[in-house]
Protein 1
Amino acid sequence: MNEKMLEMTMISLDDGVVMPELSFYLDATTREACEAVGHAVKNEECIFLANPVHKNGDKTVSFYEIGVIARIKQFVRLQNKGMRVLIQTEKRARLVDYSKDKYYVCHVTDVEETNDISEDEEKAIQSILKEKLKEAFDEGIVKNNVLYREIRSFKSVRKLVDSMADYVNISDDNRQELLEMLDVRSRAMRLIQIMEEVLGIGKIKKEIMEKVNQETAENQRKYVLREQMSVIRKELGDDGVDANVREFQKRLDEAGCSQEVYDKIEKEINYYKGIPQNAVESSVSANYIDVMLSYPWNVSTEDNNDLQSAIDILDKDHYGLEEVKERIVDYLAVHILSNKGDLPIICLVGPPGTGKTSIARSIARATSRKYVRLSLGGVHDEAEIRGHRKTYVGAMPGKIVQSMIKAKTNNPLMLLDEIDKVSSDYKGDVSSALLEVLDGEQNKEFNDHYFGVPVDLSNVLFIATANDLSGIPGPLLDRMEVINISGYTENEKYHIAKLYLVEKTREKNGLTKSQFKIDAGAIREIISHYTREAGVRSLERNIDKVCRKACRKILTGEMDVVKVTKKNIQDFLGPYKYKDENGNLKNKIGAVRGLAWTAVGGVTLEIEVNVLPGTGTLQLTGKMGDVMKESAYAGMSYIRSLKESLALGDDYFAKHDFHIHIPEGAVPKDGPSAGITMATALYSAIFNVPVNGRIAMTGEITLRGEVLPIGGLKEKLLAAKMIGVKDILIPSKNESDYLELDEEITSGVNIHLVEDMRQVLDLALVR
């Protein structure tokens, strides 16, 4: 069937898409649009309203295929030479082609719409569409009441859909989509979907606006109430001074601080009075005043003047640690006698588990001072010591001042725990910030950035703890009195366990003395075969494990009373973890037992040497540090300088390789005390002479064979005794350190003081 083609004037709609059977006003502002309107009016013909396709980056003009045929009902010329035209749209049409001279002229054909909706279905669709329209009107999405009533009166689905598409504010793309749908049912279904989207967006917008309006109203209400309160206070003659200001002033008068501090706080209170209560600065100022007034400016505790009571407390809480106790008792004696005396700044140095932290708590009890602990491990920001300036957001005092506020007294015992583990980065050097804190001449006027006034720390008893002195900078170390807390002997560990640990763990696990008993033999077995440590933490954990097993046996009815002895200790702790090493103390060639100090106590190291055919290379393995490598080279040079080395031949050292190895290769090792050990092992391997397996040694060596002093003597002797060594070689220059040791440590072993390497070889080698 041939469709009839019509020629008519075409007008491009740049302001939106129009639907059929509607009236609207169109403003013709361009010359070509006015001429097109004039031509259509003159010839009394229809016009075609086409919608241009806008493509990004494409300047060519094209139009959608489906548009609307319309008639011009009337027009009015405007002062700007344009026209306002009343247009009545009629029906859909398909654009076939168009051309442009003065204005657009096109050829269009009619389109045939399909409408196979049944009567019942049409009623249902009408009902749904009108419900959606009513919902949009109720929500305020559409507002023209006259059009709303007119559209709701339509009985045709086709007319209802087209009218609603024009009436409801939907996108031009959606309108064009509906215009191009020729099936009425599909068009209605699509409009229902579009209406759902419009209603959903409308509800979200309404909720957002309600929240915004609610918050705005609440803020306005609070503002009005604040203003009313301000006016009421003025009417009552309160002059704006609220309860906070009165409380601050009262606390300031009772603080007992210096005049400088008093003036500083009073000035801040006056500043706080003049700030509006809703301003951010108000809370910052109030917090600053509160912190300043919380500091114990004039609050102190009375020291214990009963010297014997202090001695009894220290002896009751800790076994051993005589040097620490003696120093504290000396300080107390001076303080009681003179009622003054500079406070010592003590640094307790020793392996973990030796009681450094707990002795500080006991000292606080003995001196009747408040105890406060400040952990410095991992602190890397200087502001954590000195505080932040109060102008910063979230500013607060440093940890020192915070600890003083926590103690509520200006003369507490402050424990600076793990002082060797502070670090520094781009935020400052923490150890440098501690210089002022730990200097008795400077800490009378410690400067905390948050306070902005001097803080007196001279009454604080500072005690620091560390595992290793090498981690503490020299200037900081110089300000402290170092007291070494060495590892415990087996006998000391036994007494500590018997007097303290057994009772502590028994009570911790809910056992009574009648339910749980452990004899001396069992305790010594735990010390000898289940622990290898300088302190007693592992010992306490093993006793705790025994108590837990005892609880289980009692609750299961296996035993009513648990008695732990040397014979049944393995039933509680399993097989021995460490066995006696007497079987390993055999005479060997090229193997010597050395002694080393670590941050966790003394250890023994067996140094081995092999001589191989080669090119004279000295190979070092076992993850040695630079100092230990240099000791190996020095020992090798000494061996080559000996007279007996000449008998080996001129090319012996050029034709052999020498491999020095220290077992446990994954553990880093370094230090200046293994020189004589490596030299002895080299001599034994080169000249094929066995080394006495029951000898251990420590000492540094020079190129000429002189034996130099070492450190950590007590820990090294304890480590040697633990494995059953009978003879120990130490530098003669450590004689004073040796004489200071308890007889308990030196008993059972023969200590040989050596001055040079020849003495070492004579004592260690089995000729």
Note: The longest helix spans residues 184-235.
Protein 2
Amino acid sequence: MKACGRRCRAGRVPLISLGVTTSSRVTWEATLNTTTLHPRRLPPRGTRLRGLFVLALLAALLGPVPSAAGSAPPRHDVVTWATSAFRLGTGVPDRAYRLVVHTSAGGDRMRVRLSNAFGDRPLTFDSVYAGIQREGAALVPGSNRRLTFGGRTSVTVPPGGLVYSDPLPGRVRARTNLVVSLHSPDAAGPATGHRLAMQTSYVTQGDHTADETAGPWTRSITSWFYLDAVTVRTPARTGAVVALGDSITDGWESTTDLNRRWPDYLSRRLQHSLATTVRGVANAGISANKVLADGASPSALNRLDRDVLSHPGVRTVLVFEGVNDLKAHTGVTAEDLIDGYRQLTDRVHAAGHCVVAATIAPFKGWPEWDPEAEAVRQEVNAFIRTGGLFDAVADFDRAVRSPDDPESIRPAYDNGDHLHFTDEGMRAMADEVRLKDLECASGPGR
């Protein structure tokens, strides 16, 4: 075995590793490293005495040296993946789901959060596993690990409730396709999930959660059921950002299975940034979502606590909402929308987080566009840029508007419906975010 140098001398043993090696084999093993001792020639006695004197003098000046255990840097939990749940059809008993999600921050002691937020009865999960995707529904051999809840393999989530698993020993790498497989023997009534996953997952009847092969998982889906967050333990300096938005943030019309939503592009930028220690990215986008009014999903104001403020390690919230309020033609004025932003910002600040607001992108050409809605958009964007309410601004409007017609999306970024974006448009929005603004270094409301 290889020598482990300072890590062994400090009395530390590497944690079990959850990840894929260069040979595409998963390493779920604890490696105990040892050092090899070699004889060495001692310096002359006088030199040794002078060295001891210097060490004694330094000890007197600097005080006692803390022990290795006492000097361990603090760590905390950070959200590495999340989605926003709402009602998604009807639960089916004895059904299993194999859900593929893409992590942002890397860390250890992974936990998953299961949701029965929209259920009307208790929901039992009797088998939940986590592994690493190999291809499709197949997992990297040896990676699938059973999760427990309070030490038990089964958990019942009350209606409206959320539950975290126990921490799983081992490490999850950043930007990894993590696979959570879960089975419920008694699902019924309203199911909780996320419809527009833009990611292929799998479903089957019967409990096949422990199976690492793709054999039983013959049906594919593009929604996530019951799973709404994954967290990892990281150094305390590591933080996360939550992107609060609608179908644009949700990634509609980006390429499925390639993680090309604008929050995904933002995550790629963050992983090696020197401008910030934010590494986690949670996507709280829901199609058709509004700031002010409930619709197919609760409004941003009504879902803020569960979808944003409940996640650990959050430092900043990036708000990109408002176009659905404008195009709904419900009489929403600029003052109404600004008041909604003010309420969101006050609550996020009260929770100790910063707010970065994105300007509303153009949508001329969408059937619900009209000059009146455009006038409100321009007034709201002027406030976002200069009103001083937010800790920082990301000017998405400027990043994606056409130079020939600023009321429209640049053609290369327009997916064709004049509201949603190509992969290139998603990247342009992510690139508009100043990463240092996510650090929240001066605290909220600075």
Note: Confidence is low (pLDDT under 50) at residues 1-69.
